Amino acid sequence: MKAVTFQGVQNIQVERVDDPSILDPADAILRITTAAICGSDLHLYHGQIPGMLPGMVIGHEYVGVVEEVGAQVRAFRPGDRVVGTFHVGCGTCLSCRRGDFHQCQSGGVLGYGMAFGNLNGTQAEYARIPYADYSLRKVPDGLTDEQALFSGDILTTAYGAVMNSGLKPGETVAVIGCGPVGMMAIQSAFALGAARVIAIDLMRERTEMAAAVGAIPVWSAHVNPVSRINELTHGEGVDVAIEAVGGSATIRLAFDLVRGGGRISAIGVTSEETFEFPLVTSLAKDITFRVGVANIHRDIDTTLALVQSGRIDPTVVVSHRLPLDQAAEGYRLFASREASKVLFTVD
Ligand code: NAD
Ligand code: ZN
Ligand code: ZN
Q1: pLDDT band at 271 (very low <50, low <70, confident <90, very high)
Q2: Superfamily the domain 2-153+295-345 falls into
Q3: 37 CA from centroid of ligand 2 (Å)
């Protein structure tokens, strides 16, 4: 089959590799129909993820049709149209039984290298999905691939980050970073009752995209976001800040944007192990700081329902639809931010 492979820093190639096969009775094999490049794939593209070996098949945002199931799979059969989670969990370890699928002791992230379970990715004609009964959901009636796709990753990641902030109806939210994840956080915040969402990005076009879904745009290359948010909140600061970039600079910004008693929920991926924690500010302002990777299994059914009801339209971020053969160009476009979201149509 054809698959998108990592060959080295900023070196992506489409290669012919062996078709996947059932390795465990809980596996399913999917024929992928639509796959996306996630912002997390950019960290891998730039060589920031340890354990990536040349030739590994990458990608973890996907919709497909079940081709074959292992003997233990109960919830799916060949022909089912499904969307799947970007990380997989066994469903039976203590973490999974607590509902913490993102902490599964034998789980991993599809297409993310040796450090994340050594699982092949889904930017390919076929993919093996471990623990299929837990990882997959049938695409709800009436939804297109593109509408369902992001519930497996960016939409549910962002929704989960907003849930983790403890947002209450009527509150004001700042979203730092209006990439695809930030765009999903804005819509999730509105769906969960935010009165106002203030959207911050260094790129003007990204803030305009945020304004189109109802956010107040703050182009932070042009205006100081702290001053602007103070103006918009009568000097108080926002109730909630969602960090959707990754790294210490934007986390630090979040501490400066929230009001006394405010909450920060950070979802951006970083390779920085530590950062200078603003202890005095946090102490004085009584700030709650929450950071963590997404637990897609927890919220995927909710986000699919919100998309099906029309409350969230995740497709607003899609700028490019390319055949798999043009993967290298797709990565170049997304990494340079010429594209806001790249999809590969596989069939
Ligand atoms: P992206 O790279 O496309 O978007 C990032 C956005 O942030 C861009 O619009 C960029 O202009 C903006 N930005 C960069 N620096 C900024 C700054 N200093 N101030 C304001 N804006 C700035 O990525 P994405 O797909 O939107 O993903 C965002 C982050 O979320 C990534 O780090 C990604 O890895 C992460 N992510 C995390 C999870 C998880 O489970 N935790 C899942 C999916 C994605
Ligand atoms: Zn991802
Ligand atoms: Zn588990």
Answers
A1: confident
A2: Medium-chain alcohol dehydrogenases, catalytic domain (3.90.180.10)
A3: 8
